[in-house]
Amino acid sequence: MNLKHVLFASALLLTSCKPPFNAGAFANTDELFNAANAEYKAHRWENAVHAFERLTTELSPRDPRIAQAYYYLGKSQEKMGDHLLAAKSYSRVYELLPQDTLADDALLASGVAYQEMWRKPALDAEYGQDALTQYQTFLGYYPDSPLLPVVSQQMTKLDEWFATKDYETGIHYLKRKAYDSSIIYFKDVIKLHPAAKVTRDAYLRLYEAYTAINYKDDARDLCDTMRKTYPADREVLRICGPAPPAVAAPPSN
Q1: Closest CA to 206 of 217, 218, 197, 194
Q2: Are the C-beta atoms of residues 170 and 198 closer than 8 Å to each other?
Q3: Is residue 246 a part of any domain in this protein?
Q4: Residue 174 belongs to what domain range?
Q5: Cβ–Cβ < 8 Å for 154, 173
Q6: What is the pTM of this model?
Q7: pLDDT tens-digit series, residues 103-161
């Protein structure tokens, strides 16, 4: 057996002899807290989860370390792919210690964890709604946080996904000539998500639905709105034409 094989066998033997991590084996919370952080820094996520979970039950709710325990429990759970558990762990930080320096970080992380579970706009938007709730809570709790631009960016992405979901549902009904249903969804996109990229297309498809069922007055009013909202858009000008000339007011006597 060469030296390389000897060293590998020795390392394997040492690893096999090392006892498994036991979060309940520490004499006090100070030792457990240090061990939890050591496991986290070593990227031993499962061990970190066990240690931080135990800390959350053993530390007093008034102990400032409880915020770190929940926050790093959430981060460890995320590393293991448990986004739902992570979101709930992060939430406990601002619920228990809203003034802690980690509270705004944790609230943002909670929203992002929920958002990670909404994989595509077409899927159930429950987790997207949960994420939006966390971001709205953030705006109420921490309006001066330096993390506010990140929250705004995440909310913009969510708004685009909500708009896309409604738009695609409208398209689904439009293709099946269920015009009344498609109109409801296109109107929701326009009303609820005016800044979304897909909103311009919602206007155009709403016009298409109105035209298909001969809602001439609604189509005309929609064209007036589209000309004002998208004055230089070629597609809008193509289907709506230029704005009609203004009617001069009658002369006053």
Answers
A1: 218
A2: no
A3: no
A4: 148-241
A5: no
A6: 0.82
A7: 999 999 999 999 999 999 999 999 999 999 999 999 999 999 999 999 999 999 999 99
